[in-house]
Design brief:
The chain is an alpha+beta fold. The chain contains 11 helices and 22 strands. Helix content is 24%, strand content 22%. A hairpin with a 2-residue loop joins strand 20 (468-475) and strand 21. The longest helix has 15 residues, at 308-322.
Length: 522
């Protein structure tokens, strides 16, 4: 979060609950008893809310002030701007020019710039090349898979593609399967994981040949007896169903069933680790341990793997064998030679319009990072780095006179402790997008309150349900939202709300109250 409230934390420094290791504490403003002072005006409540200098009564509506005060979030940690799409001035605003961590609302900038510059029909494809001859189904040479940066190249698409290669006559690969990933370049910090959970799917890093988000999906089925186990049937290990199929990675199931615990945060009770094979022909191991509550029933558990090349090896080998293909070499990285000949193109291109929807509806981090790199590569910077995509966005802003002097872009996804944006800048972006020719595609990509995406479970069965398209963002110490609200008179509003504070996780109620106030025609 950004915290300078008590003078002990430098302005702009990112902190979380566990970052207070120097004895300092975040400011907690004086409590205010609203039941005893019901006659207070909005301004009076602001003055009682904290000791910092405050502006006018028009800054925020009273219910929002109450919700923030109840969450012990001071006004200095909040940025809000509400403005109709047909108005010249905001209806409500506070700290609008303050540089704040936007979390996943940063995806709005990345996706809209991509829509505006590349167009919704922009597509990615993956290509296969050979450097040898194909005789009676045998390729005497290498098969090259050239990554095009596709953010959504799934294992189903790979299966279809390999099946097509079999139909084209390829049965056996005498050489290697070579992965050409030179479209993107990630080194050092750009390739580092966000936190201490490297196997969480949000920590998957970009790759020019990204396959299936570099993640496996486990279906956990409790209380299914393992016939090969000597354990008592009263407490068998949960059964695991695995997608995609893997060859070269062994799942070691050390899970146990807990018949007494509530479901709760069941993922937090499980651990996962990887142990590489002791020799080239020995499988790597994915070790799962912990107690799985039987009260959870069947659940999906997605695990992101850190090594893209190894993951492609696991999946390619399994699918190729499943299709009756043979290969003698290995799966490795390399560079496509000039003499290589095009053999096959992935059969289903991925379109930007669909990608933008997936990124914003479900806040997919690795897809957003892939998109930022694609912006750089499409501008001619190859191999592209995150800074190249950031430069494209900065030039786009300059050309459209959208000033964002505080803007800091690290990866374009908001999974960052250094990215910065103000609510005023976000408002300018959303106002510009509303008048754009790609506005329908952009707005349709945002989660709908109470209906789908990351807003599916918020504001359900209320008058505002279905009336707001809102992108959300959450990090430790950060909670944000930005998007559009249609009020009950049919007028559309841009709404931006950012909180950077250790208590940010408690700001959801204030955000929902503001959405309902805007829908209720202020």
């Amino acid at each position: 979060m950004i915290c300078a409230d008590n003078g002990k934390i430098p302005q702009g420094e990112i902190i979380s609950h566990r970052d207070f290791d120097n004895g300092s504490e975040p400011i907690m403003c004086d409590r205010f008893d609203f039941m005893k002072h019901a006659a207070c005006t909005t301004l009076a409540i602001f003055l009682c809310w904290g000791s910092l200098p405050l502006a006018t009564a028009a800054e925020l509506p009273l219910p929002v002030v109450k919700a923030l005060q109840a969450a012990e979030i001071p006004p200095s940690a909040v940025g809000v701007l509400v403005q109709a799409v047909d108005a010249r001035a905001p209806r409500w605003k506070i700290n609008i020019d303050k540089a704040m961590n936007p979390a996943s609302t940063m995806k709005l900038l990345t996706t809209f710039v991509a829509l505006d510059t590349l167009g919704p029909a922009y597509s990615w494809q993956t290509r296969a090349w050979t450097d040898g001859v194909l005789v009676e189904g045998v390729l005497h040479g290498n098969l090259y898979l050239q990554g095009g940066g596709d953010p959504k190249f799934t294992y189903e698409q790979l299966w279809r593609w390999l099946r097509e290669m079999r139909q084209r006559g390829l049965r056996e690969i005498r050489g290697d399967v070579v992965l050409d990933k030179q479209l993107f370049s990630l080194n050092g910090k750009a390739a580092a994981v966000f936190d201490e959970n490297p196997l969480r799917p949000y920590n998957v890093t970009p790759d020019a040949l990204l396959l299936n988000f570099n993640a496996i999906s486990l279906r956990v089925l409790p209380l299914i007896k393992n016939t090969e186990s000597t354990e008592k049937s009263t407490n068998p290990r949960p059964q695991l169903l695995i997608e995609p199929p893997l060859q070269g990675l062994t799942i070691v199931n050390q899970l146990r069933t807990d018949t007494r615990a509530d479901c709760g945060e069941w993922r937090e009770r499980l651990t996962v680790s990887i142990e590489p094979g002791a020799a080239p022909n020995v499988s790597d191991q994915l070790i799962l341990s912990g107690a799985y509550p039987s009260a959870c029933g069947e659940q999906s558990w997605n695990i992101g793997l850190p090594d893209h090349t190894r993951f492609m090896q696991y999946v390619f080998t399994a699918l190729w064998t499943e299709l009756g293909g043979q290969m003698r070499g290995q799966v490795r990285t390399g560079i496509l030679p000039a003499e290589a000949r095009l053999f096959a193109v992935s059969p289903a291109p991925t379109f930007l319009g669909d990608i933008v929807r997936d990124i914003n509806k479900y806040s997919n981090n690795v897809m957003a990072r892939q998109l930022l790199l694609t912006l750089g590569a499409a501008s001619g910077s190859q191999p592209a780095q995150p800074a190249d995509g950031a430069n494209v966005i900065q030039k786009w802003l300059q050309q459209r006179s959208l000033s964002m002097p505080e803007l800091v872009i690290e990866n374009g996804a908001g999974l960052s402790r250094v990215e910065r944006l103000s609510v005023a800048s976000m408002n300018r972006l959303l106002q510009f997008a509303w008048r754009s020719v790609v506005m329908p595609e952009f707005v349709a990509s945002l989660p709908i309150a109470g209906v789908d995406g990351t807003m599916k479970k918020r504001l359900q069965n209320e008058d505002i349900t279905g009336q707001a398209h809102i992108k959300t963002g959450t990090l430790d110490g950060v909670k944000t939202m930005a998007g559009y609200v249609r009020d009950q008179r049919g007028r559309y509003w841009v709404i931006v709300f950012m909180v950077n504070h250790p208590n940010a996780a408690q700001a959801g109620a204030a955000m929902d109250v503001l959405l309902k106030n805007v829908w209720g025609n202020l």
